[in-house]
Every structure is written in C-alpha cells, then in structure tokens.
Amino acid sequence: MSAVLLLNGPNLGILGRREPEIYGTDTLADIEAAVAEEVSGRGWKVLSVQHDCEGELVGAIHAHSGSTVGAIVNPGALMIAGWSLRDALASYAPPWVEVHLSNVWAREQFRHESVIAPLASGVVVGLGAFGYRLAAQALMHLCPAQP
C-alpha cells in the first residue's frame, strides 16, 4: 500500500484551539482523517508527521522520500526562513503541495514570501482545513493511478 506524507510544522499540533478565528476549529486529527478519506479510493494511507522542530521535519522528509507517493506540507512559519526544510524538500522527488490554512497574503507583510513554495508542485492557501482535501486531490491528479 502506498502512502502520502502529511507534514505539518510548528504550532500546527494545537490546531482547533490555536487562534480559531484565523485557523479554524478543525484539529490536526480532523485534517488527517479528511486527507485519509480523500486518498482512500486510491488505496493510499496517510503517514502524518507534525513537529515543532525543523530538524525533525527534515528527518521525516529524508526517511520517507523513497516510500511515499507524494506529500502535503504545511510548513507553518518555516515557510518564511526554513532553509534546511527547503533544502530537504528540494531533494524529495515525488510531487508535493504546500498548504496554508489562512490566506498568508492577506496577513502581515512578513508572511508574504515562502522560501518553500517555488519548489512545490502547487500551493493552496486561505481555504482552511478544506485546503488539505484540495491538496490531496491535487496529488492524486499528479500521481498516475497504478493499474
């Protein structure tokens, strides 16, 4: 069975109670279940990793680069200056989609540039937890079904 790497960065482990007016009320477990539902028809499972430490996220990318069909990545604030995360994603061969719950361009100026986005197959922003479902659909589009 193939797997999708669902990678979430700093502060995303407290979704549901972290600034719900910005990030919504869905928890990370809710998001994991939604992504699993989206990809189940393809026979894919979800390998979910959330960590507040950039080095742990880098390690997860390296550990799973050869065993996953693609990734959904919410780097959180690491989008701004997560250079080691960026470099790890540069070496991740399968397609991956960057996701942000809020519309980063409608927020503070420092959130308007991602060092990671130029490497992504696509970016989904501002659609809340539903953005993860769209990212899962995008991965299925980017990864041909195996006969």
TrEMBL record:
Broad class of enzyme this protein falls into: lyase
Domain of life: Bacteria
Positions that bind substrate: N74, D87, L101, S102, R111
Pathway(s) per entry: Metabolic intermediate biosynthesis; chorismate biosynthesis; chorismate from D-erythrose 4-phosphate and phosphoenolpyruvate: step 3/7
Catalytic residues identified in the record: Y23, H100
Entry EC number(s): 4.2.1.10
Keywords carried by this UniProt record: Amino-acid biosynthesis, Aromatic amino acid biosynthesis, Lyase
Reactions catalysed, as given in the entry: 3-dehydroquinate = 3-dehydroshikimate + H2O
UniProt-listed Gene3D superfamilies: Dehydroquinase, class II
Site residues (Transition state stabilizer), renumbered to this chain: R18
Assembly and interaction partners: Homododecamer.
Listed NCBIfam families: PRK05395.1-2, PRK05395.1-4
Task performed by this protein: Catalyzes a trans-dehydration via an enolate intermediate.
Family under the similarity heading: Belongs to the type-II 3-dehydroquinase family.
Protein name: 3-dehydroquinate dehydratase
